[in-house]
Amino acid sequence: MDDDAGRLGIHGVRLLDLLAGSGLLVALFDAGDVLRYANPAFRRIFGVEPGQAVGWAQMMRGNQDNPGGPLAHTDDFEKWLTAALSRRGKQPFRAFEVDLKDGRWLWITEVIEADGWMLTIAADVTYSAHAGQERQARLDRDIALRVARTDELTGTLNRRGILAALEDACVRLPAEGRGYALVLLDLDHFKLINDGHGHDAGDEVLRRFVRHAQSRMRPADFLGRYGGEEFLLVLPDTDAAQADALLARIRAGMPEIELPTTGARLTPGFSAGVIAVRQARLPREQLHAVDRALYRAKHAGRNCTVIGELEPVA
Q1: What is the distance between the alpha carbons of residues 47 and 140, in angstroms, rounded to a whole number?
Q2: Per the CB 3.0–4.6 Å rule, which of 157, 180, 286, 297 could disulfide with 224?
Q3: Which residue among 49, 78, 134, 229 is the active-site one?
Q4: Contact (Cβ atoms closer than 8 angstroms) between residue 291 and residue 273
Q5: What are residue 110's DSSP bridge partners?
Q6: pLDDT lower than 70: segments of the chain
Q7: Are 232 and 224 in contact (CB under 8 A)?
Q8: Cβ atoms within 10 A of the Cβ of 148, count?
Q9: Phi, then psi, of 71 in degrees rounded to 5
């Protein structure tokens, strides 16, 4: 806090004093989704120690035993967390409600700067005009929208959700003068896992892969299950070389998975195709190009990445 005040000057000191005594919950997360500032109200609700720099996912895991912390409506916390991460940090502005375990609820807004830093402000709206049937109708609508775009098995975006993210990137990012990378990857020899160890083992491999890949990605990146064992990644402000480096980090750190049915251990590999997009192009053109690159990766021996290109505009 003293370092913050020294950098901000006298007006900054006043601002920090006001935030310290405010009932609003205020927090600042960096581009890696690590908490860099939180006022006392935020720290009390989310169980964060003064000065503690903690990642958002780690913070949420730590709140499972916090009696006054946020309530996750789920019997599978890790799946819920994966779904939450698939939505977090993807829009310049977002507003939503969060239930607390003591029966209160918060109205939370998130504002993201171009460099990826996020300002979070929350207010206790338990006794506001939002209470009652109006709030329940809004929650039911939000749940329906999330379910429609969430993969039931892994908790990440489903095909509809990731294609919607791609369509948005196609229009918005080039218009803002920004590019992105598109990745299509396929888990290698996945049929052998299902046939040799059972579908429960295959399901566990998919779930573990999503959690691992997500832990290496930025909040602004999108990951979705495109179909079966194929996954599509939309990576804003990323060129082909940077996407290749990300995939190398995911591949190098892939955890060994103990299969639940047989106890066998394996480390799944994946093949991937990558393209970089700088100008507005149709989603089907991009998907065709990245699929060709993935095909080449499979025929190059698998467990590798091939960088492809979009066909020139006729």
Answers
A1: 28
A2: 157
A3: 229
A4: yes
A5: 94, 120
A6: 1-9, 11-12, 128-147, 314
A7: yes
A8: 11
A9: -100, 125
Contact residues for 145 (Cβ-Cβ < 8 A; gap 6+): none
Q: Which among 243, 239, 253, 228 is positioned nearest to 273, based on CA atoms?
A: 243
The kind and range of the H/E element at 183 are strand 180-187
Long-range contacts of 107-113 (CB under 8 A, 24+ apart): 108/25, 112/220
At 108 the pLDDT is 94
CA–CA distance, 34 with 218 (Å, rounded to integer): 11
Whole-angstrom Cα Rg for the chain = 21
pLDDT, tens digit (0-9, with 9 covering 90-100), for 22-46: 889 999 999 999 999 999 999 999 9
Asked whether 113 and 71 are in contact (CB, 8 A), the reply is no
Helix boundaries (H) for the chain: 2-21, 40-46, 56-62, 77-87, 133-148, 159-175, 190-197, 199-216, 240-252, 283-298
End-to-end CA distance of the chain: 58
**229 has catalytic annotation:** yes
- Residue whose tokens read 């998907």: 287
Contacts of 10 (CB under 8 A, 6+ apart): none
Give the integer Cα–Cα distance in Å for 148 and 145: 5
Q: What letter represents residue 128's amino acid?
A: S
166-169 contacts, C-beta under 8 A, 24 or more apart: 166/222, 166/232, 166/234, 166/283, 166/286, 166/287, 167/283, 169/222, 169/234, 169/236, 169/277
Cβ–Cβ < 8 Å for 59, 49: no
Q: Which pLDDT does position 2 carry in this prediction? A: 47
